[in-house]
Task: inverse folding
């Protein structure tokens, strides 16, 4: 059996070494792309979408990501048709991030798949891991929200501005606060 590469480990959620040459090259490519993309504020959404398709794993029809936009690798990000990400979105995509069709994301939202060992010796050794984030369709995420590793947000959910989402959000639910908790339906 062939040993997994650090990239394969990273994408499968296993501990990996982020300084691996293949991962470092992918990160350099993403940083160079971000310099170009983040200079396109005055460009049309169609012009920016062409650039998005150079890096992201999937870009749906009519998807809009307003610069500045920041990511680790880009290639592990999938955005559906009609997705809108406002200014200053951060996606740490050491694991896959999927954002469903028609989802609206406010400014300054962060999707953080990266995780670190709780054991201090493992942290000292320089390993980390990641867990995927999945956001359903027609979700509204308010400005400044944080979506943490391993979270799934169901279709039609609402994440309040500034919420810190540490657990899954059911379809149709509204969550607010730190940590995010459901609002009662009323």
Result:
């Amino acid at each position: 059996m062939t040993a997994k590469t650090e990239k394969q480990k990273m994408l499968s959620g296993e501990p990996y070494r982020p300084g691996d040459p293949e991962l470092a090259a992918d990160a350099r490519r993403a940083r160079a792309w971000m310099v170009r993309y983040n200079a396109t504020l005055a460009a049309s959404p169609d012009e920016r979408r062409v650039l998005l398709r150079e890096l992201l794993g999937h870009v749906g029809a009519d998807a809009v990501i307003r610069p500045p936009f920041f990511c680790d690798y880009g290639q592990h990000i999938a955005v559906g048709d009609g997705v809108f990400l406002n200014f200053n979105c951060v996606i740490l995509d050491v694991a896959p991030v999927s954002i469903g069709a028609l989802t609206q994301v406010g400014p300054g939202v962060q999707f953080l798949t990266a995780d670190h060992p709780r054991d201090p010796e493992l942290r000292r050794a320089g390993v980390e891991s990641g867990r995927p984030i999945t956001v359903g369709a027609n979700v509204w995420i308010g400005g400044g929200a944080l979506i943490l590793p391993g979270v799934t947000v169901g279709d039609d959910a609402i994440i309040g501005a500034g919420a810190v989402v540490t657990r899954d959000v059911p379809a149709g639910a509204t969550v607010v606060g730190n940590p995010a908790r459901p609002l009662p339906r009323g």
Observations:
- The CA atoms of residues 13 and 49 lie 29 Å apart.
- Helices lie at 6-11, 21-37, 45-55, 120-124.
- The two ends are 56 Å apart (CA to CA).
